[in-house]
Request: fold
Amino acid sequence: MGERLKGKVAIVTGAGSILAGMGNGKATAIVFAREGATVMAVDYNLEAAEETRRLIEQEGGDCITFKVDVSKTSDCRSMVETCVEKFGRVDILHNNVGMGGYGGAVETAEEIWDKTMAVNLKSMFLTCKYALPYMEKQGSGSITNISSLNSIRCQPAPAIAYAVSKAGVIALTREVAIQYAPRGIRANAILPGYMKTPMVEFYNKEAYGDGDAELMWRRRDAMCPTGKQGEPWDVAYAALFLNSDEAKYITGTTLIVDGGVTNTTKQW
Reply:
């Protein structure tokens, strides 16, 4: 076990996985625990969070689970209050919950727009709203919000609700970072590029692979300068760095984790 987060208490939302396999939030929860953090693994699907807890405990780490709909005020408040009641503090808030989806301004139904904004953006506002007062009282804290490369760069298929919500995550992170910098609290956003995760498969098979998962993975690999997509561990280790004391002078930034995709126009 490492010690980069020794003694820290971390809330990781979206710590389960929508399908079998390793997602970004699941990997992040595991990495945080490996580096000494006590983890609250949060997910709407409690069974998925329990799987993450089992993996952490098998390695000797500390983890509890909590079922939350992060688009709801009462759930977010209860999540933070429970964490503080059990552990006395919250040092790290890692916001990983998100949903995908495709469609332009005309094709996207209003209810899908609203749901995407609630899940991808409002959720991060709410978790920050209730975690920040405790962090301020402590005089320390670190927040990482998962945005997306799609917040600054178009994908081959239009995804207006997703892209706008993830762009909003960057603005939210910036505003929190600057307001709370004098109070010992940092906030940063991570922008993953093409990642091989269960959530990507769930939301992207039609857009990238005509319903064929293997074709989708091949096409996405071909779009990356490295010749392959990233893995959940790439996002997890970026989050580990940003939440560690090694990044104590880093706040309000956006860390792109994309294997160089940002700097190319390569498509399939």
Summary: The chain has one domain: 9-200+231-247.
